Amino acid sequence: MIFLLQIYYYTRFQVLSEDKEELHTSEIMKQVEERMVSFMTDVKDAAIAVSYNTTIQNYLESDDVIYKLTNHNNVTEITSGVMSSNKNISSIFLWDKKKIGIGSLTKKSFRVREDLEEGYEQDLYKRNAAFFGKVHNREGTTNPIYYYVHPILPQNVADYREESDHYDYSIVLYDLDYVDDMLSNIHATSNSLLMLIDNSGFIVSANKNRLKNQHLDDSTLERVADITDTKTLEFDQEMYTVQLKSINNFGLKIVSLIPVHEATNEIRNIRNVGSIVGLIMTLLIFTMGYAFFRSVTSPFDKIIRFMNNIGNKQGKQRMEIHSKNEIGFLMKEINVMLDKIDAANEHVIQTNSLLYETEITKKQAELLNLQSQINPHFLYNTLETIRSIALARNVMEVVEITTAISDIFRYSIKGKDYVTIENEMTCIQNYLQIMSIRYMDKFSFHIQVDDAIHQSRIPKMILQPIVENAIYHGLEQKSGKGILTIQGGKTEDNRIQFEITDNGIGIEDEKLKMIQASLSEVQPETLNLEVNSGLGLLNTHKRIQLAYGNGYGIEIDSKYNEGTTILVRMPWEDLS
Are 448 and 567 within one domain? Predict the structure, then answer.
């Protein structure tokens, strides 16, 4: 009878042990799955945070070079901020519709671009083309490069309805050090194997370094793919108990391999010492049950009474801790929870106060905006009043000056930053009309601009500073009557060229060389675009290069006591 009982309990313990091992392994795999889902979701969230950032969307949609240069640092700060929030992300960069990279570009970035263009060309034309990728065995790569691609749709998504359209993309490169560390610390048994594989059988990570970045052979991969429950499998010339768990939506599988002989070790020990341990445990259970009853019931009753009285008294309420066991730890955690609740309440109060102050600041800004809109109307009305008085008293010079000033004022503060040459020349004529009255016909001017370029687009107020320099620094100091000539047309290389010539006093050779050197050394990013900054010859040159590039700008030539010629070159943009 005793022998039969031993056989019965041994068999039962064997089944229970196998079930426990299977359950333990399932729990491990579930934890790994949860961590991997969290890891991959963090990578996706980083790409989504970049893709749906309005600053980045506006930056990629804009064709304005000035706007892009101005906001380039903002885009870099946004991607760097997102990257710094996740230590597993090694790089975040953008590919725009023209396949130009923006951000932290490295050799890995261009390997990813090659992989995308060759392996995912069709996916890149789909609006919802968000996917994980891997660069492996490509020339120039020693280890796999893992990345996630997410499209950056414009704010007006209706403009991109066709699948053949190109999109902007955010690309997140991430490291698997976290995954490697996680798996290397997980061992169900001393020689158990835990692997993370993709759909192609590539071992992404494992708790044994020798298995990483290897491929399962076809036969092993086929047998692993057929596993629906716990099975045995021969791997690396040894029999293993195998469990498989798929990570949905990420194309990954967790494979657990436990040597069969290690899974049954516990059974042998149970068979040998089962009876003795059973007797000892029975005595211990009675003893510990009595001690547990005495040590747990009273503290739990105290906790219940305390929780029922929370909020009934003024001030902070905390539990007195007298023991260092689990009950004492629970009391300590309750006190910590109450501290966090108090801190959260204080934070809510501070947040509400900050929101109130922010609302006040917003209202003040709206008031200042309304006040700023009053000033232009006031100036228009003042100029119109002066014009009316001058007209009534037949002072025609004042009428002409106020009319021209009003037109220039409206032109300079209203409308877009780019205007047609026709509008720009109207502004120049108004300015020259004022200067002719001021200097009492000390100089004459001639304007000759081809009709073919009248509708071409140029930056607003780009020629006025040059004309102003010609008058104040050339013609004003000349004895006798001067001549100012403005000519404009399109060159053979499809550029717009303006030639502004005066026969004033000219520029001395030494000073001319300094000016020419300054123009050749200008860097567009040093341009100060504050509203009140003066735009002289140098800043005009900077504005042109900032808008169109280093191939455009201003050239100056002058002879002392003979005159000065300034050439202005810009690209031709026909808006007709």
Answer: yes
